[in-house]
Amino acid sequence: MSTTVTQDMSFLHLISSASLLVQLVMLILVLISLSSWWFIFRKLFVIRYEIKKTDEFEDIFWRGVDLNALHQRIISSRYESGSLERIFAAGFGEFNKHPVGSDLDAVMESTRRAMRATYQREMDYLESHLSFLATVGSVSPYIGLLGTVWGIMNSFRSLSSVTQATIAHVAPGIAEALIATAMGLFAAIPAVVAYNRYASRTDQLATRFESFMEELSNVLQRRAAE
Amino acid sequence: MNVSVLRNSSPSEPRILLAGVLALLVHLIFVAIMIFGLDWKDHPPEGMVVDIWTELPKPIQEPVKTQPPPKQLKPVPEPVKPKPEPEPPKPEPSKPEPAKPEPVKPEPVKPVPQKAVVEPPVKKPDIALKQKPDPIKETKPDLEEQKKKEQEKIKEQERLKELEKQKELEKKKELDKQKELEKQKELDKQKELEKQKEVEKQKELQKQKEKELAAQQQREREAKAQREAEAQRAAQQAAARNQVTNEISKYKALILAKIKSRIVMPPDLPGNPVAEFNVTLLPGGDILDVRLSKSSGHAAFDNAVERAIFLSKPLPLPPDPALFNEFRNLNITVHYRE
What we know:
The structure holds two protein chains of two kinds. By secondary structure, chain A is mainly alpha-helical. Chain A has helices at residues 2-5, 9-16, 20-62, 67-76, 83-97, 104-127, 130-159, 167-225. Chain A is rod-shaped. Chain B is elongated, with a radius of gyration of 59 Å.
């Protein structure tokens, strides 16, 4: 950001003439904003990809494909698999490990535990960095405000040496101080919006995963009983 | 084996780099908006330029007037024309040479010098004739005759010389007489002139005296007029002051009446307490500040009056804003009993 700012002399002058603390605040805010936007786009791609994969897998699963073939396909191409596919692979693999005729309750319990563990891991993966977006959304306005208050304090302190105070004495200082607030808000607003959106999307995914887990355990239990 | 496989199957995040590039892009767009949308330092000058343009139309006409100056620059060629004129002077220096006999300087035209050239030869012969006759006379007669003639001539010359001397003496005498006469005449003239001068001086003095008298009279009249005008002005000013003071007192009474109408008098106070307030007003009748300058001794009465003052906002003020200075700081005294 600072490199592109050099293109405009007045804008650069406004930032370069700010006090050291304000400049530091601005630098921190620029870094925060950059990383928050980076995470926003990363999570956007991840969640979109997961939703797409989940839709595809549920579509295939409920069409009544052979579960063994599906399991083999997922394991062979596991790096392109989605969360729900991995949960299915974990549960189905655990179910198949048990020999035929063993205690049904124990088999179903271990299958459920395996799916649960994978589900936790997947949710952890989906929700990673969302807390960072929440932190940015709540803290960066305060950081910007700190820079602004400091800058305005300085510009008013310089007024004390002037006998006849005019707006012109204070205006540039306030303008450059307000840039810090603008930066903080610029970092915070998209972070908050993205956090809320992504949190609801991951919640939706979590419900879909859990319901699928229940349904799969039912399917497996029926299959073991047959 | 399967467990380890599942654990290692940590999900690969898609398109991390693309996300970073997009984040940078978003910031670039934001900075561009900041620079092109918020360059507030560049806009005020443009506004100034617009203001100047509205006043420019007249200056634009002036430039049109300044274009004529190029036409005035043509005068520069005109100064060049004088150069041709100086050329005639060159012939003029040549004229003086023929014009020596009778310098006819005033006529610079070429034809004139030609005439001048013609005339001098005519006059030179005259001079030559006067000089030549003497040598001619000396050469013609014989030697004896010449001698006699010379003696006679000498005698005649002597006589002539004597005669001439007598004539000269007579002339001198006559000249002296004439000079004396002239001197007397001049003296007479001088005396007459002096007399005339004296008369003129007397006349001038009389005129000056008259003028001075007239000026004094005028001054007196002007002074009288000024005094009368000043008196009138003073009267007018006094009248105006009276009006102003009347209006001020009238509005002060109005203000006091309005305040009194709003007072909720606390009941049963002993005596006739007086509260004095110092009220600072804003133009328009708004109250800026109310200070209790002298308490009545009863807090209830003071508070009631203060409340009434605030309630009677806006206070009635004269429409003439010049009078507001009289109302900027008002002293309001309120008596408990009228």
